[in-house]
Amino acid sequence: MKMAVNRVDSSGPDGRVLWVAAIVGGVLLAAQTALADSSALTLRWVLTVLVTGGSALALWRSAPRTAAEGPEPVVLVLAALAGFAIWPVAWWLMDLTNHALLEAGSLPAAQSLIDLPDTFFGARLHDASYELQILFAVVLAPLVQAWLVWGGVEPALGRAVGRWRAAWIAGAVGGALMSLGAVQNIVPGLPWGLASLGGYLLVGWVAALAVYLTGSAWAGFAAHAAFVYTSFALRDDLAREMAGKAYLDVAWLTLLVLGVFGAAMLLQVIRFRVPRPAEPPRAGLRRLWMPLAVVLIALGVMAALDVRARRDEASNDERVAVGVTDDAGARPSAPAVRVPPAQG
User: Fold this and answer.
1) Which of 8-17, 73-82, 273-282, 319-328 ranks highest by mean pLDDT?
2) What is the mean pLDDT of the chain?
3) What is the pLDDT of residue 332?
4) Taking 60 as the threshold, does the pLDDT of residue 336 lie above it?
5) How many CA atoms lie within 13 A of 37 on its CB side?
6) Confidence band (pLDDT; 50, 70, 90) for 108?
7) DSSP string for residues in 136-182
8) How far apart are the first and last CA of the chain?
9) Is the pTM of this model over 0.90?
10) Is the pLDDT at 338 greater than 50, yes or no?
11) What distance in Å separates the CA atoms of residue 183 and residue 193, rounded to the nearest whole number?
């Protein structure tokens, strides 16, 4: 005989967590898109932290709280190493996606961080812009996302659909928020736009599985932060090593196999080292699909904006090429006109 499952309306505490996460994703996309051409880099990071952290704080204050022990430090190290292991796989997937999207065109040239004045309420932060970006990207942004997603969304989903399914759904939500909230149009920086989504989903799933195995949001934070730190520290080395190699080259395939195997083995070590957290009482959630649909809509908007920007850039390149050709045809004796390269 099938047991009945009590269902909780999506307007309850668990439902509010999902709605807040979905709305945060949309707000971050709107803010980062509006500021994509702005020279204020630190402002963008501050908005990301305030929106995500403020939402997590509001939920935390309105929900009943229970004391929970943090994981052992060695478990956090293992989770961080899993984030490090999945890094080349995520970047390979991002670059492959970007290559496929080149059919629509390339994105406009990004702004160089070196050239940004980075003003914040009248203060010029240019000399500290890179260091501030590292602080926000590696520590503060993963911390507030861990609070909202790994400490809020994943437990709420666990009470609705079970912890195992919740890990996969929460990992997808976390990866979507990474992509929706990514600072756009800055180099050096983290990937953004549609091309970044697949890689961030991988990172989200690794972080969510670490949370599933430990019962602690700190494990998800460690995996996410390690991925971001590695992205800043080693991406130039990766680019040099893999320059000119096909996506299915033996060197790439070897790195992909090692990355996936390493992340899986590290999660297995966590699994055998930490007692599995108990399953919470199941209370299904009515209209669970609604906040998740909002996340999908936000991703659809991001994809549409990305493709439109690529097509606009391709049209601009065509107009420039036609203009140069026509000019050369009308005045064959004139020297060729070189279009100065975009900064970035």
Assistant:
1) 73-82
2) 86
3) 41
4) no
5) 4
6) confident
7) IIIIIHHHHHIIIIIIIIHHHHHHHH-HHHHHHHHHHHHHHHHHHTP
8) 64
9) no
10) no
11) 9
Single-letter residue type at 92: W
Question: If you count them, how many residues does the chain have?
Answer: 344
Nearest to 24 by CA among 298, 230, 316: 298
H helices then E strands: how many in the chain? 11, 6
Decide: 280 and 162 in contact? Cβ < 8 Å: no
Residues 284, 160 contacting (CB under 8 angstroms): yes
The CA-atom distances, in angstroms, between 190 and each of 5, 79, 195 are 43, 21, 12
62 CB neighbour count, 10 Å cutoff: 10
- Cα dihedral 309, 312, 314, 317, rounded to 10, equals -120
* Torsion angle (degrees, nearest 10) of CA 126, 191, 295, 312: 90
For residue 284, CA distances in Å to 8, 9, 60, 160, 237 come to 6, 9, 21, 4, 47
